[in-house]
Design a protein that fits this description.
This protein is an all-alpha fold and about 220 residues long. The chain has helices at about 5-10, 10-25, 25-40, 40-45, 50-65, 75-85, 90-105, 120-125, 125-140, 145-155, 165-180, 185-190, 200-219.
């Protein structure tokens, strides 16, 4: 059973920050992306702003330095050590805290300056990704439906109770993806999760149109 203490390390802001810091090619780029995601999300900014994340990192660093501190999940320690490199883990957490504290007063780089990564896209467009995965699964079923049929079925998967929450968010996120990423290369970066079933701009447009039609006809 997962303890309340372990939840600090396996979910939420600290988990995401260390995960990105350990996986990216550039630590600074991943930290900038984390700050950008938090800053761009009204929910994250009001519940866990960068200053609060910084304070929590300081607390965790102090606990890590304390004799007899509670053990952390092994996977977290592995990721933290990978991200920290030659620095002691507690010192690295304090570095992250200071970095985020500084960035709390600076603007984030735009997407042309720092392109969106796939992990960032998953955080920004969770409902769109969920519906797109359903669309891909339906499209690959036997017999194979055409794009419009697959889009119509995917658009109805949350009916009736999730239409006003999940599907509304999915439609907004799909529209945002279409507006933000105009070229094939830009769109491919965001949709890399679907390489097994390549998605084109037309697929997203068909799914968005099907959601709107579902709202008009069923609600």
């Amino acid at each position: 059973m997962t303890s309340n203490h372990d939840l600090l390390y396996i979910d939420g802001s600290i988990h995401l920050l260390v995960q990105w810091a350990s996986a990216g090619e550039s630590l600074e780029d991943e930290l900038e992306r984390f700050c950008r995601v938090v800053r761009d999300s009204p929910v994250a900014w009001s519940t866990m702003p960068l200053g609060v994340v910084s304070a929590l990192l300081d607390v965790l660093a102090d606990e890590m330095d304390s004799p007899g501190s509670s053990p952390r999940p092994a996977e977290f320690d592995v990721r933290l050590a990978r991200a920290a490199g030659d620095r002691p883990p507690a010192e690295f957490l304090r570095y992250l805290a200071e970095y985020l504290r500084t960035k709390d007063y600076e603007s984030s780089p735009g997407f042309r300056q720092l392109p969106m990564s796939l992990p960032e896209a998953r955080i920004r467009f969770p409902q769109a990704f969920q519906i797109l995965h359903r669309f891909v699964r339906i499209s690959a079923s036997d017999p194979y439906p055409d794009v419009e049929e697959a889009a119509k079925e995917a658009a109805s998967t949350e009916h009736p109770f999730g239409c006003g929450t999940v599907m509304v968010s999915a439609a907004a996120e799909l529209q945002q993806i279409l507006l933000m990423f105009r070229s094939y290369e830009e769109l491919d970066t965001v949709l890399r999760d679907f390489r097994g079933h390549p998605l084109a701009r037309q697929d997203l447009q068909s799914l968005l149109a099907a959601i709107r039609t579902h709202f008009d006809e069923q609600h």
